[in-house]
Write a structure and sequence with these properties.
heterodimer; A: 342 residues; 12 strands; 31% helix; B: mainly alpha; 75% helix
Chain lengths: 342, 320
Amino acid sequence: MAETLLEVNDLRVRFATEDGTVRAVDGLSFKLDRGKVLGIVGESGSGKSVTAMTLMGLTRGVNAAFEGEVLYKGTDLLKVSDSGMQNYRGNELGMIFQDPMTSLNPVYRIGEQIVEAIQAHEKVGTRTARARTIELLRQVGIPNPDTRVDSFPHEFSGGMRQRAMIAMALSCNPSILIADEPTTALDVTIQAQIVDLINRLKDDFDSAVIFITHDLGVIAEIADEIIVMYAGRVVEQGTKRDIFYDPQMPYTWGLLGSIPRLDRPRVERLHTIEGTPPSLINLPEGCKFRPRCPHAFEKCTQEPALENRVATPGHLDRCWLDVEYKRAHRDDTISGGSVEAA
Amino acid sequence: MVAFLIRRVFGMIIVLILVSFITYLIFFKLPGGGPNGVADRIAGKVATPQNIASIKQKLGLNHNVFVQWYDMMKQLLSGQLVSYYDQTNVVQQIKEGLPETFSLCIGAGIIWLGFGILVGVISAVKAGGFSDRSITALALIGISLPVAWLGLLLRYFFAGEGHFTWFPDGGYVPLTTSPWQWFYHLLLPWFTLAILFIGFYGRVLRSNILDTINEDFVRTAKAKGLSSRRILVKHTLRASLIPIVTLFGLDFAAVLGGGAIITEVVYQIHGVGYYAAQSIHSQDLPPLMGVTLYGAAFIVVFSTIVDVAYAYLDPRIRLT
């Protein structure tokens, strides 16, 4: 059995703001084994990025409060001091951010920034670090890495910058790569290349990946397990197969219905989930998705627990609806009501 | 780069010509001093018409304004321009003031830049805390203190009749005569001149740092596992100092160009600012023309230096 790298137990993150307490993450649990890819999906404001940054210890501050455990190889990272986290950041957990245009420092050369990451964790000379940087840039597919290593970020395209970010995140051979919407700011052809790259490098570097996105289409290509988040909570959790072929949560159906697909009949319009995600300060009573859910009924005013309701073990959801009812009705949302006349 | 510099030099010359012409108009042609303007003022209250006419003749005030300006510029640039008041040579006087002005301004510049950065960094790192609040209060007091008042008080308490006569009471000793005496005499003037700038730079830097801390690339630096000190110095401070370079370039040029008038007068430092103050007092126009142009030259030269420094500090900027 593969080594468990990360085990998150009932993670809760709250921020005190002027308007009240924001419950950004509310009870998140998962396990991540070496070589696996965990996908976290959800709309903006569902707590995905806060989760990722909390794993790295980047959300700490006077206004932030944490509960639960983030066990990395047995050490609870939430209890590690901020300076102690320096040994984990970059070294054990590497991170790629959403916006490659602003995530690199504009005044330093690409190479300098990667060399700096290597030298933060290993006592190696600049020449060795530079040689490794060039090799890394080659691995992530930057053409002419031995000259481009001296380029400034503004001389790179968005896709190349994201490749450079990936090279930087992998420079110290982290066991876990956290990718926070790495493809969102890129155009579609580049998106596919970056996803392939991450997938390939995961095997080359023998690491695990946490891939965060709002796009289930992207996740379909890469994830082994998927967590669907809504309003800071996990609403459905299971293998890729569970989520794509037997989705139990009307919110997941909405996400599935909103990606264009070639293997289904073409619809006039893609599905949209009506309304907007709730404010994380004043959450609705009961099921958090109830106000936007077309299938809501009386029982939904009480919040369902995240538990296994189907035959497949490990497939968890938060929905009161009868499983057979859901299986009969979900295709209306996923495939769209009005199939275009042939 | 070369093309940029050539173009800037042309720009500077045009700016200086305009500055000199406008200054000439302000001093010689704007209303004031009676129907014959400057000639009336020079001739005094009991002048006869013959007096005034002969002054106008002597100073060339009967010519067309462009000719008058051209003549004055020719005299100034060839080093021939003399004071109306005591016939001393203007260029010579400015030259004699340079060592004192430079000593004052370079020392004060180092102090205000160093302390300004220190104050800004400390209050940004401790933002909201006690040291931030106390430094902010001190900085605001520093900005609000009039230099003349502060200079006189410091001189009174620490050099003059006060209880702590630790410092010499004004005056200047050349660096070549005695480096220690030079330093000792300038210490109070340096701080007097620097205090306003320290407060101001500290405030600007504090807010720049607090803006930069929220930049994505600072988060990236943290995610790489760098220490907080390294993130502060290498990533945050580097970006936050860029606007300070502009401020410093122009402020420093202004004081070098004779802008430290009050400090020089209060401490009896006979530099360019002191010369300007004397000339204003005696309504001596040729020295004022000289000092104004001298100051303007510093401003235009330093603004070019600032642009070049910018391109060096931020590689995205290209000089074209």
